[in-house]
Amino acid sequence: MEKLVINGGKALKGSVEINGAKNSAVAILPAAIMASEGKCIIDNVPDIEDVHCLERILASLGCSVNKIDNNTLEIDASDVTRVEACTDDVRRMRASYYFIGALLSRFKKAKVELPGGCPIGVRPIDQHIKGFEALGAKVTIEHGAVTVEAEHLHGANIFFDVVTVGATINVMIAATLAEGTTILENVAKEPHVVDVANFLNSMGADIKGAGTDVIRVKGVEKLQGCNYSVIPDQIEAGTFMIAAAATKGDVTIKNVIPKHLESIAAKLIEMGAIVEEGDDSIRVYVEGELKGVNVKTAPYPGFPTDVQQPMSALLSTVPGKSLIAESIWENRHKHIDELKKMGATIKVEGRTAIIEGNKDLVGAKVIATDLRAGAAMVIAGLVANGVTEITEIEHIDRGYPHIENKFSSLGADITRVVEE
């Protein structure tokens, strides 16, 4: 087992390149299985554990998966006939449910074991099932696996009961090869929803409206391979923006889409940080004192739930009272107990964290309870006086490529060591 050791108190300075979006890649890779002809060459794929998991799942289904380099994959799914995804890798990660929509779309049947992922609350797939059934599929869940079958898929009008990224993407994928037109309403607008739609269109799909309230999918007969580049990771970029502010540093974050970061930038500016936008970069630096703010997570374009945990680490260090209201997941404050070990003053009431900011966190031995909680502990460690040791960093590796190298390049004293 490995851990991160951080000697805190150093302002981050310099520039850092952001990788491709995890939340896009984990849907795009399963969707590549829908190309019955040709190869998909996908660039800007993040070198993270969730992607490695998906590579193994694709191979288990009969795909040819070749790594051209650390960030480019070549996927040939033309000879795939297997429609069952029931491996340890499938059970390990949440996004494996995208194989349901992809396999159903191409083969009209699929069996996929129920997925896992970070323990941040109940994440039902009822809206996915609602969509698949509306398209004409029969869905059964037994022995821990979801089985979907359809004689043929047909277009439908589907209104999601809640705004859900997973179901929006999964049903959009399933509808791509359905007969007729599917209209999806009350859909998620996140950048990775748009990215997946653009990828499908590059393979020959006919999808319009991604990024708006209504997505229209006109079914096509088949999809073929394509060349595609994944968008930059909004959440990784937001994490580095917050880290720059927390350490009172000066960091230019490159290879980003600034529009995707507007809600994060707005909160940092409200706190007193200086944020400067470039065409494909964003600079964050601090010249004076920061102050507490109130944050409420919301679907895009609101403040991302995946950034609230890193934000709580920052707010723990600034004077004043702050509130973080988590409106997406009911159990996304597990990291608070770890921050308290470092001297943070935080009280949780329901889904709201009440933070009494103070300037001095102290290094401690802490745990990365989930992916984004791990990023929060890294930021806390960068700010804290003394040494912080973070264990269970396999969670961090699921979404942040080589995090210690990137922070080291900005002047942080952070190393990865094998636990004794």
TrEMBL record:
Phosphoenolpyruvate binds at residues 22-23. Coiled coil: none annotated. Gene3D superfamilies: Enolpyruvate transferase domain. Residues 7-406 form the Enolpyruvate transferase domain. One of its GO terms (biological process) is cell division. GO terms for molecular function: UDP-N-acetylglucosamine 1-carboxyvinyltransferase activity. The modification 2-(S-cysteinyl)pyruvic acid O-phosphothioketal is found at residue 118. UDP-N-acetyl-alpha-D-glucosamine binds at residues 94, 123-127, 306, 328. NCBIfam families: murA, PRK09369.1, PRK12830.1. Cell wall formation. Adds enolpyruvyl to UDP-N-acetylglucosamine. This is UDP-N-acetylglucosamine 1-carboxyvinyltransferase.
